[in-house]
Design brief:
2 strands; mainly alpha; DNA-binding; about 140 residues; about 5% strand; homodimer; Arc Repressor Mutant, subunit A; globular
Amino acid sequence: MDREEIAAAVQRELTVFARRVRGVPQRLHQELPLVAYSMLSSIDAADGCRSVDLVTLYRLDKSTVSRQVGDLERRGLVAKTTDPAHGRGQVLAVTPAGRALLHEAAATRQAELTRRVATWSDEELAAFAAALQRYNAAEPD
Amino acid sequence: MDREEIAAAVQRELTVFARRVRGVPQRLHQELPLVAYSMLSSIDAADGCRSVDLVTLYRLDKSTVSRQVGDLERRGLVAKTTDPAHGRGQVLAVTPAGRALLHEAAATRQAELTRRVATWSDEELAAFAAALQRYNAAEPD
DNA sequence: CCGCTAGGTTGTAAAATGCAACTCTAGGAA
DNA sequence: TTCCTAGAGTTGCATTTTACAACCTAGCGG
C-alpha cells in the first residue's frame, strides 16, 4: 500500500466517523446533545473564554455560537460576565449546575468510548490520541 | 497520564473533529457536499449495494438514505436497478457521470488531506489509518 | 470627543436528520 | 394456490444545526 492508498483509507475512515457522529447527539445524552456538550466542555476547559474563542476553535459562524451559548445561558448552565479586564466581549463561565450536568454527560460518553477501545493497549490508545491531536492542530487554510 | 486521561483526550479530539466537519460540506466541493459524496463513494466502493446497506454503514434512518439516494438519482449520478437475483430492494450503481464527479471530488478532498498530513511519515499515517479503522469497526451497541 | 471596529444578536433560509405512517412485494405457511 | 408477514423504500412532518447578512453596542485609538 503506497502513501496515496493510505491517505485514501484515512479519508474513508474519517468520512465514516464524521457521518456516524451526526446522528448521535440526542441518542447519547438526552439533556446535553453533542453540540451543547462540546460548547459547555470547551467553556469549562478554556478558562475565561469568550464566544469568539469558540468560533475559532470549532470554525463556526458567530451567530451559531451566539445562539448555542444563549441556549446554555437560558438553561442556567453558563453565565456571561462582562469582565472589564477583557475589554469588549463577555467572559463565559460554567455554572455549578452546568458543571454537574457536564460531568454526568462526560461520564456517559467516556463509558461509551471505554467500551469501544476496551481491547486497545495503553500505548495504542495514547498513539491514537496523539495522532488525532496532531491532525486537528494542522491548519486547514 | 493514565488511561482515563488518555481516553479523555481521545474524546476531546474526536469531538473537535466532529464539530468542525459539520460545516465543511458545501465549503469543500460545491457540487458534491460531504453527505452526497459519502453516499456516492460508498455506492461506488460496495458493488451492488442497496439502500439498506448504507443505512447500516452510516447508522442513518431509512428515510434519510432514501432521500439522499433519490437526490443522487435525480441528478443522474446514480441508477437504481431492480435485480431479481437480490429479491426485494433495488441495487444501486454509480453512473459514468457520477463516477466522473466522484473522482473530481475525491481529488479535491485528497489534496486537502495530503496538505494536512504533509509532515507525517508513511508509518505514522499508516498507523493512523489502522487506528481509525479499528475504532470505526468496533460495535457501538 | 468621534469614528472604527471587534464582539455579539437577530432575521431568514437551507440542509440533514429522525420518527411515524404508509405502500409494495417477495417468500414462506397453511 | 392463497394469504399473511416482514423487509425495503417513500413521504409527511417537525426539529436541530448551520451560514449569511444586516444590525446593534461599546471599547479604543487618534
